[in-house]
Amino acid sequence: MLGIIAFVLFSHQPMAADAEGLASYYTVESASARTASGELLDDNDLTCAMLQGEFGEYVLVVAENGRSVICRLNDRGPFSKGRVIDLSEAAMRTLHPTAGLLPVKVYRLGFNPPPEVIQKSLH
Question: Given this model, what pLDDT does residue 66 score?
Fold first, then answer.
């Protein structure tokens, strides 16, 4: 997160979102037990599904309410018009305690964001 903030501050360029639209969430009860990457879906992991991107890549999801979460891409979706990302239940609850759909901006962080960025997103 600090690297992203430093980049924006020092470059004087706004960071452009890679995707903007609605986020939804899915659970083990509502989806297949296995993700497209072959992993087991775990409602408590900070993971997500997007139609594009490589499995294992990290994304920063920023909600309209200002809250954010970093998720690891491990599945494909969403397959509903207007939705840009499906989040695990834990990721969605980090952004909002009760929402089923939420306006968000998604930023790609790559495969190796600084460990402190990931650690901060866990708390």
Answer: 93
